[in-house]
Amino acid sequence: MQEEIQKAIARMLASMDMDGVDFVVEHPTDSAHGDYASNVALVCAKRMGKNPREIAEQFRALLEGVIPQVARIEIAGAGFINFFLVRDFFSEKIAHIRSYPDTWGYHDTLKGEEILFEYTSPNLFKPLHIGNLVGNIIGESLSRLFEMAGATVRRINYPSDIGLTVAKGVWGLQKTSGDVRDISKIGEAYRVGNEAYENDATAKQEIEAVNRALYAGTDEVLQTLRARGIETSRARFAELCAILDTSFDFELFESEVSDIGKRVVMEHMDHVFVASDGAVIFEGERYGLHTRVFLNAQGLPTYEAKDLGNFVVKTDKYPNWTQYFVVTGGEQREYFKVLICALRQVFPETRGKVVEHVPTGFLTLTTGKMSSRKGNVLTGESIIAEVMEEARVKASESRSDDVEILVEMVAIAAIKYQILRQAIGSDIVFDKARALSLEGDSGPYLQYTHARILSTEAKARALGIIPSHINAPETPYDVERLLYQFEEVVERARRERAPHHVLTYLTELTGAFNTFYAHERIADKDDSYAPYKVALAEAVRITLKNGLWALGIRAPDAM
RNA sequence: GCCUUCAUAGUUCAAUGGAUAGAACGAUUCCGUCCUAAGGAAGAGAUCCUGGUUCGAUUCCGGGUGAGGGCACCA
Which of A45, A210, A324, A410 could form an S-S bond across to A52 if both were Cys, CB 3.0 to 4.6 Å? Predict the structure, then answer.
C-alpha cells in the first residue's frame, strides 16, 4: 500500500518533470491525520518557489482518484498530504489474516538465502551469565525475523570449552571436591577458582599450570574432570535452551577451531598478518582501526585467530551461506571491526556478502556493569527462577490446565520483553521489580490479551456467532487501522536488526484492542456487528501470536 | 591520549528530518450485576548546554559537559 502511494506520487512528479525529489510516505502519529501521509509538498516547496500548502492542494487535485484504495486526501498542517484508505481495505485485511493465519507477517524478501546466526556462546564452567541470556534472546528473535522474511536460518552455538576460565573451574573442582555432575557445584568451583586466581599468587600459578596442561591434553585426571564438567554444563544449557525456546542447528567448540585458526593465520603471513615482538599481529591501523594480536609469542592462537577458525568451520558446514551474523556484547564492538576487516582480507569471497557483528547492550543494574568474574553474580538461572516465582503467585488464579507450563511461559515472556523493549545495542538497565511486576507494558500483558481473545471467541461460538468481515461498521476501529501495519513492522525490524519495533507495535496494538474490548461488547448475539467484531478480534489474536513468535515468546491459550 | 557508543517525564523505554514528543511504572482520581481487572478511563509530568544546516532538528553537522565500552599477546 505504502508502495502504491509512493509510486503514484513518483509518477505525478515525473509527469511534471520533477525528478529526484526525496519525499517519504509514512504513517502519521495521529490517526486523525489519515492512514498514510506524505511530506512531498514540503520538499518541493523551495524548488517550485511556492508555498507548501498551495502545492499540496495542486498535488491533491492530481492524486485524487488515482489510487483505488484511497478514499480521500486531505491537506493539513504545514502542507502534509494525508491519505485515508477506503473502508474495505481494513475489512479485507481482516479476511486475509483469517484466511492465512500461519503466514500472516511472513514474506519472501530473502527467499533462497541461507543465513548463519551465531549467538549465546556460553562459557562452559562459568554460570550462564545474564549477558548470555541477552545474547540468546536477541539472537533468537533476529533469527526468527529473518525466517519470517523467507530465509533459511542456521542457529549456531560457539561455547568456550578451553582457556583460563575452564582452568579456574577445573582447579576449583579439585579444591572443593565438588560433584562434577552437579551444575551448582561447577558454578561454585568456578567462583572459588576465580577468587583464588585474583587474590592468591600460588593459586594463580597452579591455575595457569592447569591451563597449560589442559591445552597440552597430557594430564589424564584433569582431562577427565574437564570432560565431565563440560558434559554437566552442556546438559544444563540444553535445558535452559528448551525453556528459552531456542534450538541450535550446529555447535562448535573453541578447542576445535584453534588449530584451524592458527593455520589460516600462518597461510596469510606477510600479506595480511605480520610478525611483531615475537607475536603475529594484524595491523588494523592501516584501516583506521587498531592492531590486534592473532598468535601470541608462544605461537598460540588468541581469540582472534580462533574466530577465523570458527569462520572456516562454519562456512565449511554451510558452504552456501549468504549472510553471516555474530551476536555478542557491545564491549566487543571494536574487536569485531578489526576481526571482520582481517576476515575480508583473508577470505576475499566474503567481500560481496553481509558479514556483520550485532552488538547487544550490556545489562546493568544500578551499579555499573555486572561481571560474572566478580562475586555478586546475577546469573541467567537466578533471574529466571525469581521471575518464575512471581509468575507462580499470579498464576494461582489462572484458568490454565497446566499451571507449571504457564508459569514458565509467562516468566520467559516477562524477561524477554524487558530485554527486547529497547533498541538492541543500547545498554539495558534490568529493572527486576519491573520484570517481576508482570503488568503494564510487559510480556504477560500481550499474552493475557491473546488468551482473553481466545476466550471471547469461544463465547461467541457458544452463542452461535459466525465471524465475518462482510458487515462492517462505517468507521474502522483504531485497532483495525493498526492491524495491517504488522507486515511493514516485521520487515523493518529485520532490516534494522531491531526487534523492539515489533514489540512496540504489539504493545500499541494490544492497547488499542483492550480499549476496544472495554468499550464494545464483542460476543453479543443481538448486535448485527458482532460477527465483524469477532472477526476483528480473531485477526488481532493471530497478529499477536505471530508477533510474539517473532520475539521468541509463546502465546498461551488460557491464563 | 586515541577510537567508539550514548544523554528524552521522578524511573525504565519509544519516536525511517515532520504535525500537539508516545507508552509503561510510580504518585493522584475514577470504572465491579456485563465477553478473563495480568484490564479500562481522566488529569499532572521530559528532549544535557551551545552554535550551525533546513520550510521544519529529539533526530544531521561543529563545540562543550557528563557517562559507558575499547585500545598487543585474556575471552
Answer: A45
How far apart CA A363 and CA A379 sit, in angstroms, is 11
How many CA atoms are closer than 13 Å to the CA of A236, on its beta-carbon side? 23
Q: Percent helix, strand, coil in chain A (nearest 5)?
A: 55, 10, 30
ipTM of the complex: 0.95
Among A98, A107, A115, A97, CA closest to A148 = A107
**Cα-based angle A53, A56, A59 (whole degrees, multiple of 5):** 155
Nucleotide lying nearest to A558, CA to C1' measure: B36
Question: Å between A186 CA and B17 C1'?
Answer: 53
Instruction: Say which amino acid occupies A245.
Output: D
For residues A147-156, b (16+ Cβ closer than 10 Å) or e, as one string?
Answer: bbbebbbbbb
What's the Cα-to-Cα distance from A380 to each of A49, A50, A86, A166, rounded to whole Å? 61, 60, 49, 19
- pLDDT tens-digit series, residues A99-132: 999 999 999 999 999 999 999 989 999 888 888 9
Give the residue nearest to nucleotide B5 (CA to C1'): A426
Chain B: bases < 7 Å from a protein Cβ: 3-7, 11-26, 34-41, 54-56, 68-75
Task: Name the nucleotide with the smallest C1'–CA separation from A25.
Answer: B16
As a whole number of angstroms, the distance between CA A256 and CA A273 comes to 22
Tell me phi and psi for residue A242, to 5 degrees. -65, -45
Looking at A200-276, list the stretches that DSSP marks H as alpha helix, in order from N- to C-terminal side.
201-216, 220-244, 254-267
Q: How far apart are CA A451 and CA A448, in angstroms?
A: 5
pLDDT 10s digits, A463-518: 999 999 999 999 999 999 999 999 999 999 999 999 999 999 999 999 999 999 99
The nt closest to A299 (CA vs C1′) is B73
